[in-house]
UniProtKB/TrEMBL annotation, chains A, B:
GO terms for molecular function: DNA-binding transcription factor activity; transcription cis-regulatory region binding. This is AcrR family transcriptional regulator. One of its GO terms (biological process) is negative regulation of DNA-templated transcription. Residues 36-55 bind DNA. The keyword Metal-binding does not apply.
Length: 221, 221
DNA sequence: ACCTGAACACCGTTCAAGT
DNA sequence: ACCTGAACACCGTTCAAGT
């Protein structure tokens, strides 16, 4: 409080919001390994101890960053879609978000109960609107959420092992090489789909899985 | 090589197998956070640097430990089951294994391509036997694998946040409390299933998800 | 009240020195 | 060849000292 009233405040003062924002920038540009309290302090032009006045520890910071990104992704889903399309929109929205921020995928199965709950609620509401029997709603929402989580983790790992500006074609060719290196007698299925792997689209495959679960839910009513 | 021939060797000599075995013991009894090269060296009665003669780094060690557990789990699936039952057996086998070794769930989406590939092959083979159209086999195997992965991660996190000898009823009551603490107007679905959460069974819910995906696959042929 | 930055108690990993 | 264990370059977190 100054003689100018409530408004005046250093616009660059430290706050939880600014810290989370800076953390997201570091995570996006340099990856999970680059987020240290020292790097964060340097970017915010402060001491590393100062951060602890606004954030209790690193896990909480990562949860807050994840929550911020997931909230933004869920908010982008149009409200007037048919239930099944809304589920697809939520799923694809999360897929694209994790594609953009791979660290979110890795983070999503740790502490951030709140981010997960937001996803679960968004999907559950549409499942009810879809007319899935009451007794199957919980299991159905759980199945979809877990599937999305599994893909998220997988994608995060792919992005991590690929590095930032990697050539996707070269990457896939390398995975195909790894797959076909295994004994064909012990891995017949892997060999038979290795060719499809080369020119499949992750996003399409993800959506095919969503549709598979939606089709399964459809058989319940 | 001694004058006794090839056979003689100290049975307690360090080896990759003994290191992986000791790592699994530490992970099982004291959790992921307890696995350090210093703790491992102490348990093996050696110096921390000695481990690097048999294992290149910690990530490789964790991948080898995960691979060892997953291989054991997949080997336990009976060979004479009908395809759909075999898929259920693989899935439940992995579920129970991760229940017993929660760190495997957390580890499964990182490096161990080989563990993942083993699961993918096991499931893919049965999908083909199931008569799923050729064009849908890759996506179906991918969906099931990703779903299993998602549940694995979720379960690992639950086990971690529960601690070892925790009371499950008390834990669930606490989750219900967290769920219902949110605004009912913003989280109607979460509130409506909170009661079911209290006495649901994780294993049954997991299997219900598998059956949902199997039912979806059934609509394709 | 908020910030500073040295200090503490750890890590994974390396490497000269031993056997 | 294999092992030892001190040393190095980091971490997250704490805390006396400043403003």
């Amino acid at each position: 409080m100054s003689r100018w009233g409530v408004a005046e405040r250093r616009t660059d003062a430290l706050s939880k919001e600014r810290i989370v924002e800076a953390a997201i920038e570091i995570l996006d540009t340099d990856g999970e390994g680059a987020l240290t309290f020292r790097a964060l302090a340097a970017r915010l032009a402060t001491g590393s101890g100062a951060i602890y006045h606004h954030v209790p520890d690193k896990n909480t910071l990562l949860a807050a960053a994840t929550d911020s990104i997931v909230t933004r992704a869920m908010a982008g889903v149009a409200g007037d879609l048919a239930p099944a399309d809304a589920i697809r929109a939520i799923a694809v929205g999360l897929f694209d978000t994790i594609d953009e921020h791979p660290w979110v995928g890795a983070q999503l199965h740790r502490h951030p109960r709140s981010a997960l709950l937001r996803i679960f609620e968004g999907i559950g509401g549409r499942i009810r609107a879809l007319g899935v029997p009451e007794a199957a709603q919980f299991n159905s929402a759980s199945a979809l959420t877990n599937y999305i989580l599994g893909v998220a983790a997988q994608n995060a790992e792919n992005a991590r092992s690929q590095g930032a500006g990697a050539d996707r074609t070269a990457f896939l060719a390398d995975v195909v090489r790894q797959w076909t290196r295994n004994d064909p007698a012990r891995y017949p299925f892997v060999h038979s789909v290795a060719a499809q792997l080369r020119d499949h689209d992750d996003r399409e495959q993800f959506l095919a899985g969503i549709d598979l679960i939606l089709a399964g839910m459809d058989t319940l009513s």
